[in-house]
Amino acid sequence: MKTATSRVRGVEHDIVQMPQVGDVSPYYEPQGNEVAVFEAAYKRRLPVMLKGPTGCGKTRFLEYMAFQLKRPLVTVSCHEDLTSSDLVGRFLLEGADTIWHDGPLTRAVKTGAICYLDEIVEARTDSTVVIHSLTDHRRKLTIEKKGQEIDAHEDFMLVISYNPGYQTVLKDLKPSTKQRFIAINFDFPPEEVERKILLREVPGTKPEIAQQLVAIGRKARLLKDHGLEESTSTRALVYAASMMGAGLDPVVACQVAMVNPITDDVELSDALMEIVNAHFA
Ligand SMILES: Nc1ncnc2c1ncn2[C@@H]1O[C@H](COP(=O)(O)OP(=O)(O)OP(=O)(O)O)[C@@H](O)[C@H]1O
Ligand SMILES: [Mg+2]
Q1: Residues whose CB is under 5 A from ligand 2 (ion)?
Q2: What mean pLDDT is reported for the chain?
Q3: pTM (2 decimals)?
Q4: Which CATH architecture fits 3-185?
Q5: What atom of ligand 1 comes closest to residue 60's alpha carbon?
Q6: Phi/psi of residue 180, nearest 5 degrees
Q7: Where do the domains of the chain lie?
């Protein structure tokens, strides 16, 4: 599938074009009933919230679903400076004229794409407000600056992601926002599935290496309730396998992919390295 990154002042977003015959589906290993739930939500054009820790497969899942449903995917990574204009659009000076430029959300609403607002909680509150009329029965987008209201294309769908536990009281979605969504809970995949993912994502990985990495990941995640704030993600396991595939020593690969990024605490690092050493040293 063709991907383009475009930048409308202040907001960078990816557009994955409609899948074409001959395109290969993104690889996604289902963990439960998420595919069926998403399909039903899409049938009813209900907005979906993907909940789960970092690196557990939310983005990959959506790329896969967009491909299966043959819809273009517009992804916006939300950040704390993101305003509603970044999503909806703005007038820009071009020579002597001011020309209106649709933002990524408006473009998705008009063309019937799936719009993915990644980490929506990060965005300024005014940008969460613009999605309200889009996510209930109205399915309308208000373009305040133009005094316009547009009906969403019948294929348009809004998807947001949400990392539970990262929010503070000050930064959380309002109940009136949350309850407009069908929410799908993600977690790290079961052992067998995670092994399969490593083998597929990093070709050349030996099954016994995948098994050890998955085992380390599991034990490392248990430390989460013992002071560690982050969980070792499936992404981190993929990185470790990838670094080993590039010829790095397994212990070093695990350290740089699975230990150093998630903690600055010496004792916790040591505890994680102990787990790594028990498997690879
Ligand atoms: N179920 C899965 N099938 C295939 N690959 C997976 C799956 N789960 C995780 N992965 C692997 O883990 C990596 C990270 O997944 P992804 O980018 O989807 O995480 P995420 O949940 O969107 O994380 P973040 O919250 O940080 O954006 C993927 O690039 C892929 O290699
Ligand atoms: Mg993601």
Answers
A1: 59
A2: 91
A3: 0.92
A4: 3-Layer(aba) Sandwich (3.40)
A5: 18
A6: -90, -5
A7: 3-185, 191-280
**Closest C-alpha to 157, from 108, 230, 201, 194:** 108
User: Closest-lying ligand to the alpha carbon of 162?
Assistant: 1
Q: Which residues, judged by CB distance below 6 Å to any ligand atom, belong to the binding site of ligand 1?
A: 27-29, 31, 52, 54-60, 163, 189, 197, 201, 234-235, 238
Report the distance separating Cα 187 and Cα 261, nearest Å: 20
Q: Residue 182 contacts by C-beta under 8 Å, 6 or more apart in sequence?
A: 37, 41, 46, 47, 48, 49
C-alpha of residue 180 to centroid of ligand 2, in Å: 21
For residues 28-32, average pLDDT: 95
- Write out the DSSP string of 3-71: EEEEEETTEEEEEEPPP-TTPPPPP----SSHHHHHHHHHHTT--EEEE--TTSSHHHHHHHHHHHTT-
H helix runs in the chain, sequence order:
34-43, 58-68, 84-88, 104-111, 125-129, 175-178, 191-201, 207-222, 234-245, 250-254, 266-280
How far is the C-alpha of 88 from the C-alpha of 208, rounded, in Å? 49
Lowest-pLDDT range of 19-23, 60-64, 97-101: 19-23
Ligand nearest to the CA of 62: 1
Looking at residue 220, what DSSP letter applies? H
